[in-house]
Amino acid sequence: MPLLCKDCNERRFPIAFPDQRDALWLCEKCKNFVNIKDEFVRDWTKEEMEENRKKLENFQRGVTTEKTPEKKRRSGVN
Ligand SMILES: [Zn+2]
Questions:
Q1: What is the model's pTM?
Q2: How far is the CA of 27 from the centre of ligand 1 (A)?
């Protein structure tokens, strides 16, 4: 499995596509996908990068709000 990128040695991540039988492996540094046989498939598109960035932002926002003890603020103090 192409766990590591041949070009930069960074970790690749499997991304599942509904129209594809097997997941494609993404290198976020080289911004390209290879298949399970470690063959170049295509570049990471701008749209996908944008989508990924948004997902990450939402995720981080979710994590930070969960950790903020906002609800434990003193109540009934005027
Ligand atoms: Zn790479």
A1: 0.72
A2: 5
Non-local (6+) Cβ contacts of 6 within 8 A are 38
CA 50–ligand 1 middle distance (angstroms): 19
Percent with pLDDT over 70 in the chain: 82
Q: Which has more confidence, 76 or 26?
A: 26
On whether residue 77 sits in a domain, the answer given is: no
Alpha-carbon torsion (36, 40, 45, 50), positive or negative:
positive
Q: Is residue 26 part of a domain?
A: yes
pLDDT of residue 30: 98
Residue 43, domain member (yes or no): yes
Domain containing residue 22: 13-66
Ion ligand 1 neighbours (CB, 5 A) are: 5, 7-8, 10, 27, 29-30
